[in-house]
């Protein structure tokens, strides 16, 4: 019981330190995508939520999950939910647990942000919906 309390206090002190806060804020809006763990639309909906909450999101993947990240980013861009800010590619050294050999894996990071005209777009959509409803109501009045 005491060990748990000590660990919690250690975590709290790390959060309070400037280094802990910097690391914490950098990781808040990061999504590490996997091919096999969750369905694609889980990541899409999570990214939408992060964009609303933090105004941007960082999608990250290794190896065979890279096409999934690209697909997620393209779906979000096509739907007008996000705009592309930055793409980073690199290789990462990974160690196999079984034999200890080092293998290089491809890594991608895509940073997406809230579209600049998202507020204007929402207002324009509302106006368009109201304009589309008005002629239908006028036609209904003429029929009566």
Descriptive report:
One of its GO terms (cellular component) is nucleus. The protein has helices at 2-16, 18-28, 40-54, 66-78, 118-143; strands at residues 30-32, 56-62, 83-95, 102-113. It has a domain at 30-113: Translation Initiation Factor IF3 (2-Layer Sandwich), CATH 3.30.110.20. The longest helix is centred in the last third of the chain and has 26 residues, at 118-143. It is elongated and about 50 Å long. The protein is an alpha+beta fold. The chain has five helices and four strands. A four-stranded mixed beta sheet has the order 1-2-4-3.
Assign the CATH class of the domain at 30-113: Alpha Beta
Give the biggest beta sheet: 4 strands, mixed
The share of residues in helices is 55-70%
Q: Uncertain runs with pLDDT below 50, 5 residues or more?
A: 1-25
Mean pLDDT: 76
List key phrases describing it.
alpha+beta, 5 helices, Translation Initiation Factor IF3, DNA/RNA-bd_Alba-like, disordered N terminus, single chain, UCP030333_Alba, RNA binding, 144 residues, four-stranded mixed β-sheet
């Amino acid at each position: 019981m005491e060990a748990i309390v000590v660990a919690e206090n250690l975590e709290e002190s790390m959060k309070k330190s400037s280094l802990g806060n910097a690391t914490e804020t950098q990781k808040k809006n990061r999504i590490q995508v996997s091919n096999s763990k969750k369905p694609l639309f889980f990541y899409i909906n999570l990214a939408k939520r992060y964009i609303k909450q933090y105004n941007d999101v960082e999608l990250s993947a290794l190896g065979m999950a890279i096409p999934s990240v690209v697909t997620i980013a393209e779906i979000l861009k096509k739907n007008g939910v996000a705009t592309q800010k930055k793409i980073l590619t690199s290789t990462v050294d990974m160690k196999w647990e079984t034999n200890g050999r080092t293998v290089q894996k491809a890594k991608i990071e895509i940073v997406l942000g809230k579209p600049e005209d998202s507020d204007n777009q929402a207002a324009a959509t509302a106006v368009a919906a109201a304009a589309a409803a008005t002629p239908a109501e006028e036609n209904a009045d003429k029929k009566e």
